[in-house]
Amino acid sequence: MPPFPSQFRFDLLSTDPSGARRGRVTTTRGAVETPAFMPVGTAATVKAMTPQEVKSTGAQIILGNVYHLFLRPGHERIARLGGLHRFMNWSGPILTDSGGFQVFSLGALRTIREEGVAFRSHIDGSSQFLSPEIVIQVQEALGSDIMMQLDECTPYPADPDYVARSMELSLRWAKRSQAARNPEQTYQALFGIVQGGMIESLRRSSAERLREMDLEGYAIGGLSVGEPKALMSEVLSYTPGFLPVDKPRYLMGVGKPEDLVEAVGRGVDMFDCVLPTRNARNGQLFTWSGTFNIKRQQFQDDPGPVDAACGCDACRHYSRAYLRHLFRNQEILGHRLMTLHNLHFYQELMQRMRQAIEEGRFAEFRREFLATRPHQAETPGE
Amino acid sequence: MPPFPSQFRFDLLSTDPSGARRGRVTTTRGAVETPAFMPVGTAATVKAMTPQEVKSTGAQIILGNVYHLFLRPGHERIARLGGLHRFMNWSGPILTDSGGFQVFSLGALRTIREEGVAFRSHIDGSSQFLSPEIVIQVQEALGSDIMMQLDECTPYPADPDYVARSMELSLRWAKRSQAARNPEQTYQALFGIVQGGMIESLRRSSAERLREMDLEGYAIGGLSVGEPKALMSEVLSYTPGFLPVDKPRYLMGVGKPEDLVEAVGRGVDMFDCVLPTRNARNGQLFTWSGTFNIKRQQFQDDPGPVDAACGCDACRHYSRAYLRHLFRNQEILGHRLMTLHNLHFYQELMQRMRQAIEEGRFAEFRREFLATRPHQAETPGE
């Protein structure tokens, strides 16, 4: 079938000797400089933040979840209220995740069929069904700028035969997704999702057959699902190379700061992850000299900021001692300030990477940054 | 003893024919136009808000709690970190509550003696002790602008003999509080607390004997403790008249919007209450046409703001449908936006009362406002 007449654009601006790419996504709701990190706004809110605060950190695009919004408050309700952007007061681009990851995380509560996936709501136990076509309809009702196909997020570990069948199913669902699009909603893009587990030949086959569909962008799914870090790194060493140079590459659900740096070095352009927001609510703070948890007793009398190298409002106005106090009291302001800091850190990290790529010194940036993360745990980000 | 050499000032600017007073409290950290409402910042944070947001609602003074800060993180720690204002990043005036209300709310966990009150921490069960002198020391360490004496918040109902003895104890504690002050901390004020239950002669005696101490201000305590609304109204009909005209009058822990309007009409100048903040987190919203709870199903498709007559950020940018969605998901942003709205409403209510007093039309304002509250429950605010 011919390419969809989308107004979505991607421009590759420059490529660093390392392979890191500097680009720009253009949507009718604004541009996104890449490499880009998308804060996660699961239920039509980036947890604890106003949209203005999210924007103030430098974020140009956020992510919403089909799974959550489909269940509550419902995509049709959001459409009646003027669409997701208006509903949540965010005027910039939004990428909506298809729900594949959430549904497959339900385990025994869901059943995969050729037609789609039946599952029970985590909210009220009601029986629900999502197909590739329904997921497109939901995202068209929400009015997101980038839609994701429904896919099966292949678990790890998995039998190679299962991985292959799962990858083929996601491919068929990609085609059904593309066929289901409303040709009049030209402001929307659709990204396909490369699966294939940790098997190079399957990743290659998935990517090549998705390329034939000439979608607006391509995601790498099925990583950061519990595999060893070395294995994720291996898959990232070859998979981006299977994807077209002139389309954005989105690594789903990754990850820690060092994971982002590694993946950008492999030619990835877009990321999302709950780490900066979720971990903030658990007291974990990301800084230019490493990560730490605010609950540690050593901070109880510490008058210094979270990160003296950071210019966010939390670091400019509040001490570690105060943030620890708020955290121990489970005060909302603690969640707010720590979320703001972490999002600010992630966006500044992306900004520094973009600059390093433009200046052709990404390898140096990468080396210096990873030196600040000498003792990271083996498991990747959520 | 001679009056304390305090830099604290109160100016009575005008009195409405109704008896409502328009005044100004002046502290070294800024002025407070009265009648004033003080948002409650129990644990060194007005829950869910940044200090900038609190200020943006029009608040000029906030309240902190000795009881909570004494237990955690500790007043000495706050002093080492530069005092309460710096700790929480609020540069305006702060009134600190003495802890009497919180300690006496502990019920079986506390024992009142002449010397002070022994109690068990609600956090870790540890044995603690507060005396009038310790409470002054704590407030001097915190560096608040208005200190409250330790008092016994007389319960309701109570035997008249108990009410009289309790009132006498609070009076003796007031004198010990005054004697314990550091004469070098002249930026601080000390307010005495009128007790005496629902008995006019005891209220009169308490007030008159506190007046003899020439304190910087006087509070009315022991109301809004479960008594019928008519009884609170009766006590408020005479107690303010026992207090000096040239000192501020602070009604502690009150209350609902209609309670504030009634009390201002009785000549009260200052208020604090957790209602606008706590009830926001329970979904209750105060508006110029009454109160409602956002969780009601009727709001699920409502594209309108909480209050079309309100100019707060929550009303300018978000629908009732969205706030209901946030509330049902217990999203922090819901708590934030609803708290912001309620605080904005309370401050605007105070502003309108101040203007009505200046223009000599408070009785008219009162009548019109109470007409928007036709079916209020009998119980007063917390």
Element layout with pairings:
Two copies of one chain form a homodimer.
Chain A: E1 9-15, E2 21-27, E3 30-34, E4 36-39, H1 51-56, E5 62-65, H2 66-71, H3 75-80, H4 84-88, E6 94-97, H5 100-104, E7 110-112, E8 117-120, E9 127-130, H6 132-142, E10 146-148, H7 160-180, E11 189-194, H8 200-211, E12 217-220, H9 229-238, E13 249-251, H10 257-265, E14 270-273, H11 275-281, E15 284-287, E16 290-293, H12 313-317, H13 320-328, H14 332-358, H15 362-371
Parallel strand pairs in A: 4-14, 5-6, 6-10, 10-11, 11-12, 12-13, 13-14
Antiparallel strand pairs in A: 1-2, 2-3, 7-8, 8-9, 15-16
Helix pairs in contact in A: 6-7, 7-8, 10-15, 11-14, 13-14, 14-15
Report on this structure:
2 copies of one chain form a homodimer. With 382 residues, chain A is an alpha/beta fold. The first copy, chain A, folds into 2 domains: 9-272, Queuine tRNA-ribosyltransferase-like (TIM Barrel, Alpha-Beta Barrel); 280-371, no CATH class. Chain A is built from 15 helices and 16 strands. The longest helix of chain A has 27 residues, at 332-358. Chain A is globular. Chain A starts with 8 loop residues before the first strand and ends in an 11-residue tail after the last helix. Chain A binds chain B through residues 43-45, 47-50, 72-73, 77, 80-82, 87-89, 300-301, 303, 313, 317-319, 321-322, 324-326, 328-329, 331-333, 335-336, and chain B through 43-45, 47-50, 72-73, 77, 80-82, 87-89, 300-301, 303, 313, 317-319, 321-322, 324-326, 328-329, 331-333, 335-336.
